[in-house]
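User: Okay, second chain of the day. Same drill as before: sequence in, structure tokens out.
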Amino acid sequence: MSGCPVMNKRIQTLKYILSDFLSATLSWNVAAFHFKQYLASYSRNEGISASPENVYFYGLFLVPVFWILLYFLSGYYKEVYRKSRLSELLQTIGITFIGVVILFLILDERLNLFLYNDSLYLVYFLSHFLITYLPRFTITSYTARRIRRGDIGFNTLIIGSNAKAVDTYLEIKDQAKRSGNRFVGFIDVDGKTKNLLAGYMKHLGNIDNIRNIISEHQTEEVIIAIESSEHHLINRIINKLIESDVVIKAIPSIHDILTGKVKMNSILGMPLILVSHQLMPAWQENVKNILDFTIALLALLITLPLTLFLIAGIRISSPGPVFYSHERIGRYGKPFTIYKFRSMHMGAEKNGPELSSKNDGRITKFGKFMRRTRFDEIPNFYNVLKGEMSLVGPRPERKYFIDKIVEKEPHYLHLLKVKPGITSWGQVQYGYAENVEQMVARLKYDLIYLDNMSIYVDLKIIIYTILTILKRKGI
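Assistant: Same drill. Structure tokens below.
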């Protein structure tokens, strides 16, 4: 993308937010004027429990904020450069309807709006929808034109190097309307082919160093264009791409088209299969993030007296620091520092990384108590506040053990699609793993979680975790 991709996305997002804020303010004034006209026809304001003027002035700020939060939760601000105007129209209608119902349920309690004029619902819905959608349509249409002119583009990498890759490149390049792809180069899949695509763009390497290539070239989109003879490598390619937050597309085969697996992003563009990172609907993912932050903050405040007790217990039971921190691997393979209360004696890993077991002599007596109750993981809530972890998700591992697991089960890398969690379905169902074989056995539960991610499933796992802690079984 022209300029700094991250900064441009922020500016584009701010355009939509500012437009929505001003639109919400204007539509609120339209509704207030309509209400005031009808209210003026009544000589007495029986049934009104609050001043309409006060509600109006409070609403000038609170109502637009309400709408911005609602749009954020719906995921409207997530893909600001890849919007479909038809989808935007339908989404705006749906969210406007939901928002108006919520607002009027609240206002009916304050002003008894039905007592005066029930057409306010229709007036507010129509005014808010039209005043909101028209600026959105203008911004989206202008952005689409800039993409087609080539003013805005997405750094794109092609995986593949032979006939299909060449055909894909030429078809995208020769489209009457540009798709926004700016090709930074291509990588081959086995290092043995003739690389026909080298005549059209730069050869950047092979799939073994794809993560570094994506980072170096600020790649936003990857197109998999491999030959039929190379399809046995598709799992390896996808596993490599999981560690990068990029849009992944692939050339469909005739079988894919006939079985309905091709999800079109544009009627006019080249047909490509979209390989989505999104495991939850956007609104659920946003709600999950808000719940994570809120619950983590409350948990740290509520457990403060317990934290002081644990600090004293650790100090008395064994010499050394109170907290234990080391590097774990998070979403998209990004390392982060995890924090826990120290439950082992100092120098427990002087011989290298080692998993703990039930009768592990490295664990202190007080540490055993903390592990049974999982109090040692209270500092994990700090990682949740930082956005590095979630309340529910696959437990984060060290790179040393991830490499060992991947040797036996490459699908482990799929867990890197999501934030790691304080608790997980794998821990609830399987418990702590004492060796790599058990970690591989536990993997199936976490993969099942990925296929069934939802707010409901998260709440269910949290409840099971709390019950396990109350029974002092540990996990």
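The longest helix spans residues 5-39.

User: Thanks, on to the next one.
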